[in-house]
Specification:
The chain is an alpha+beta fold. The protein has one domain: OB fold (Dihydrolipoamide Acetyltransferase, E2P), CATH 2.40.50.90. It is 37% helix and 23% strand.
């Protein structure tokens, strides 16, 4: 009987210690502006006159803002969720992208906003190597959204081109 109790206590301690490892850590900040369904801006208060600094959500690709109706819808939903809110920015391996935007996972009240955007069919899950910490979560969220026909996966009004395809075609014109 004592052995069973000891094993049970050890299992509980192990589970509690594992839970603490999964908590995101990073920088708390306020969202000042939402640029698109994948980019927010925060105020960089480390300088005398605060500048807006763009943050690109890791692992997602939202429709281009001109990609009707999904680009505006993604921006509006991200704005409703985050604008004026204190969020946690969790960073991964790579600090910035090719456009000099910080790359981050955005957490609000324990909710991974990157995942939420994909789960609601507002963005595609897109690997951002080497930043892959939550790629499995994002891929699973996309599969659920696709099966449920949500947002860009709606069979009556699907997104016909990926954001990358849309941008490359529209840059040529």
């Amino acid at each position: 009987m004592k052995t069973k109790i000891i094993y049970l206590l050890m299992a509980c301690i192990f589970l509690v210690s594992c839970q603490n490892l999964n908590r995101p850590s990073g920088q708390m900040t306020r969202v000042e502006r939402v640029v698109s369904g994948q980019t927010i801006e925060i105020a960089d208060r480390s300088v005398a006159v605060p500048l807006l600094e763009p943050i690109r959500l890791i692992g997602i690709q939202a429709p281009d803002i001109r990609q009707n109706p999904w680009g505006q819808e993604a921006r509006i939903q991200l704005e409703k969720l985050t604008l004026g809110q204190e969020v946690l920015l969790e960073f991964d391996t790579q600090e910035k992208d090719g456009f000099d935007r910080l790359l981050a996972y955005v957490w609000l009240g324990g909710k991974l906003i990157n995942e939420y955007m994909v789960k609601e069919g507002l963005a595609l899950a897109k690997p951002d190597f080497p930043n892959t910490k939550y790629m499995e979560r994002l891929t699973n969220a996309q599969e659920k959204a696709r099966l449920m026909g949500l947002g860009i996966w709606n069979p009556n009004q699907p997104m016909r081109q990926t954001p990358g395809e849309f941008r490359s075609q529209n840059l040529k014109q």
